[in-house]
């Protein structure tokens, strides 16, 4: 199904993709590296064919199992916040979902480690990584709350589901000089995107903007 979808990339898709990139620029995305990766990544292969005509809209879309593919603006914003730190050798993503954000990270980082709690979603994402020949992506079925201690420390950590508190294991697995971008649920259903930076002196924390993500949940689904 994916290869049929990939074969469908034509002038229309390229044009709508370029329009999306212009929209991201208009919304304030400045990283040329991130924009270039997003321009060449076919978002339509990450969603069901029935929705593929909406793939280059700047909106989140359903991917099944009650989950979503993130809004392109949010993918761009979170990636550029990480990439601004300079060195991005090892990046951890919590919440692979359909794998779109992972694929964008694979274009800006040397190695990407990604964890998903819902096995069927991870299986589909893994097929897409193969189709796109992303050899620098390693994935795991598990609870991302715990991070991936065997591969730590990470220069960047990106969390694409919202906890009520930032998981301590993720803070511990951040390298000195590393950055974490994570949505945090607040009272009254509000979520704020947080940017954390770790230095020898400790952790600095900044609120970036209001966002809307699915919740970070414990446990795994086979
Ligand atoms: N990164 C995706 C993209 O490219 O569009 C979006 C992911 S979706 C908004 C959030 C994902 O986080 C879902 O697939 C969900 O199953 C996953 N998730 C939630 N809690 C998790 C946890 N504790 N560990 C790993 N994955 C988790």
Automatic annotation (TrEMBL):
Assigned keywords, A-Z: Cytoplasm, Methyltransferase, S-adenosyl-L-methionine, Transferase
EC class (word): transferase
Main localization, broad class: cytoplasm
Cited CDD domains: AdoMet_MTases
Pfam families found in the cross-reference section: PCMT
Biological-process GO terms, alphabetical: methylation
Catalytic activity: [protein]-L-isoaspartate + S-adenosyl-L-methionine = [protein]-L-isoaspartate alpha-methyl ester + S-adenosyl-L-homocysteine
Localization: Cytoplasm
Record: active site: 70
GO molecular function, one term: protein-L-isoaspartate (D-aspartate) O-methyltransferase activity
InterPro entries in the cross-refs: PCMT, SAM-dependent_MTases_sf
Entry's EC annotation: 2.1.1.77
Annotated function: Catalyzes the methyl esterification of L-isoaspartyl residues in peptides and proteins that result from spontaneous decomposition of normal L-aspartyl and L-asparaginyl residues. It plays a role in the repair and/or degradation of damaged proteins.
HAMAP family, per the entry: PIMT (MF_00090)
Family the UniProt entry places it in: Belongs to the methyltransferase superfamily. L-isoaspartyl/D-aspartyl protein methyltransferase family.
Classification via PANTHER family: PROTEIN-L-ISOASPARTATE O-METHYLTRANSFERASE, PROTEIN-L-ISOASPARTATE(D-ASPARTATE) O-METHYLTRANSFERASE
UniProt protein name: Protein-L-isoaspartate O-methyltransferase
Organism of provenance: Aliikangiella maris
Gene (name only): pcm
């Amino acid at each position: 199904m994916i290869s049929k979808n990939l074969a469908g990339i034509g002038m229309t898709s390229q044009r709508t993709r370029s329009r999306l990139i212009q929209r991201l620029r208009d919304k304030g995305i400045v990283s040329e590296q991130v924009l270039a990766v997003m321009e060449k990544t076919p978002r339509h292969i990450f969603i069901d064919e029935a929705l593929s005509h909406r793939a280059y809209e700047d909106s989140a879309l359903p991917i099944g199992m009650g989950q979503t593919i993130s809004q392109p603006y949010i993918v761009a914003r979170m990636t550029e916040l990480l990439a601004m730190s300079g060195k991005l050798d090892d990046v951890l993503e919590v919440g692979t979902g359909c794998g779109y954000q992972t694929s964008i990270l694979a274009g800006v980082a040397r190695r990407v480690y990604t964890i998903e709690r819902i096995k069927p979603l991870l299986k589909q994402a893994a097929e897409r990584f193969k189709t796109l020949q992303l050899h620098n992506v390693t994935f795991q079925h598990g609870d991302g709350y715990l991070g991936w201690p065997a591969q730590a420390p990470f220069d960047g950590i990106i969390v694409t589901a919202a906890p009520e508190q930032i998981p301590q294991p993720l803070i511990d697995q951040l390298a000195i000089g590393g950055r974490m971008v994570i949505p945090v649920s607040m009272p009254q259903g509000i979520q704020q995107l947080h940017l954390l930076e770790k230095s020898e002196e400790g952790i600095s924390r900044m609120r970036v903007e209001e966002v809307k993500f699915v919740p970070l949940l414990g446990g795994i689904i086979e």
